[in-house]
Write a structure and sequence with these properties.
InterPro entries: AdipoR/HlyIII-related. This protein has about 400 residues and is an all-alpha fold. Helix content is about 65%, strand content about 0%. α2 (about 25-35) packs across α5 (about 70-80), α9 runs parallel beside α17 and α16 (about 335-355) packs antiparallel against α17 (about 370-400). It binds zinc ion.
């Protein structure tokens, strides 16, 4: 069906393409737009956070004045793409149509309007503007200590991924895990492409469990933070993937550590691998629960993943008791494991209590908010773990094959 609801100029141009049957009447459009409330919502969002940026402020005021001059059906339907001013690039061509010879017909009275059109066009091309927490729909309200600089619902994956390069409350969250994601892909590629003489296939297989966990965790996380403002359904789906990623990273981290720590002891190695697999699977199942992502369950989420990581205390204690503390510190990288655990736990606590923005609301809207600090701690912990398991593997492999128990006796 023809789309004839944007501008008067466009409607004139489109006459040959659209039949009267296709085109809704002005009265119908007005009724639809008024009913949707988009016009008022959009105006409000456009003008909400203008204090952040003077240029944006000027543009927004002029845009608003221009919108006020337009008939309601044009102004409202201009924003019909998203619930809150989500305007896609495909509008670019439509707008350009307003600047061709047709406008000359309007002559002098249109000059001031031209200026407003140009500014409106620039704002249009920018696509959207950040909004105040109060103006977010309920499903986008996660952290009420972050006051300004939120993305509105964008309703487009293209717009979401473009927002990676703009400044808003999620910019830091996206980049911290995007850079970690790229770094671990590079490390994994380097490690797995070493010649067999240098790194055996068994080592590659065992380390792959960790690489897969780290890459999926960081990849799911940066994708979630990029697209969660798309729509409620998409946001919820990627939120679950984000939580799954944390469980997968924890499970993947255990594999090489258990493999090398209990290198010659098959039973505990298999038992502990089965334990982390079961606990990780339970965490993933719990993450699938719709309510798990709600803000009020933030401490529960932190608790579930801290508990999953802390289950590593059991095999660690087993190792210390059977091999001795000296051995554990020097040959099982216990120090690095403890450092990793501290980073994860401190990061999860910062995430749960939302400090510093809880103490200074509105001061960490863009940078250094608790979630970014948590992200940095996760990446740091993953690097520490990689270093730790590399040391254990180097030590264990320098010992050669396991001595059969009968010979030990
Ligand atoms: Zn995150």
């Amino acid at each position: 069906m023809c789309d004839c609801s944007t501008t008067e100029a466009e409607m004139t141009l489109a006459t040959s393409a659209c039949t009267d049957r296709d085109r809704p009447t002005v009265t119908q459009q007005e009724a639809a737009c008024s009913a949707s409330n988009q016009y008022h919502d959009c105006k409000e969002d456009i003008t909400t956070d203008t204090a952040d940026n003077l240029q944006q402020q000027e543009s927004s005021h002029l845009l608003q004045r221009h919108l006020d001059q337009l008939p309601l059906h044009q102004a409202g339907c201009w924003h019909r793409n998203g619930g809150a001013c989500a305007i896609t690039e495909e509008k670019d061509d439509d707008i350009d149509g307003m600047f061709d010879g047709k406008l000359d017909f309007m002559a002098m009275p249109g000059r001031a309007l031209d200026k407003a059109e140009e500014i409106a066009r620039r704002v249009w091309l920018a696509g959207w503007t950040v909004v105040h927490h109060q103006h977010l729909p309920k499903w986008l309200r996660d952290n009420d200590f972050l006051i300004k600089g939120h993305r509105p619902p964008l309703n487009s994956f293209y717009a979401c991924f473009k927002s990676i390069f703009r400044i808003h409350t999620e910019t830091g969250n996206i980049w911290t895990h995007l850079l970690g994601f790229v770094a671990f892909i590079a490390i994994a590629t380097y490690f797995l492409t070493r010649p067999t003489l240098e790194v055996q296939w068994q080592e590659k297989a065992v380390f792959s469990a960790f690489f897969v966990g780290a890459i999926l965790c960081l990849g799911f996380s940066f994708t979630f933070h990029t697209v969660f403002c798309h729509s409620e359904r998409i946001g919820r789906f990627f939120n679950k993937l984000d939580y799954c990623g944390i469980a997968l990273l924890t499970m993947g981290s255990f594999v090489p550590w258990l493999y090398y720590s209990f290198y010659c002891r098959t039973e505990p190695k298999i038992a502990y691998m089965a334990l982390i697999f079961i606990l990780g699977t339970i965490s993933i199942v719990v993450s699938m629960w719709d309510k798990f992502a709600e803000p009020k369950y933030r401490p529960l989420r932190a608790g579930v993943f801290i508990a999953l990581g802390l289950s590593g205390v059991i095999p660690a204690m087993h190792y210390v008791i059977t091999e001795g503390f000296y051995q554990a510190v020097n040959y099982a990288a216990l120090g690095w494991l403890v450092l990793m655990a501290i980073l994860y736990i401190v990061g999860a606590i910062i995430y749960a209590v939302r400090i510093p923005e809880r103490i200074w609301p509105g001061k960490f809207d863009i940078w250094f908010q608790s979630h970014q600090i948590f992200h940095v701690f996760v990446v740091a912990a993953a690097f520490v773990h990689f270093h730790g398991i590399s040391k254990i593997a180097t030590y264990r492999l320098s010992f050669g094959d396991c001595i059969p128990e009968t010979e030990v006796d």
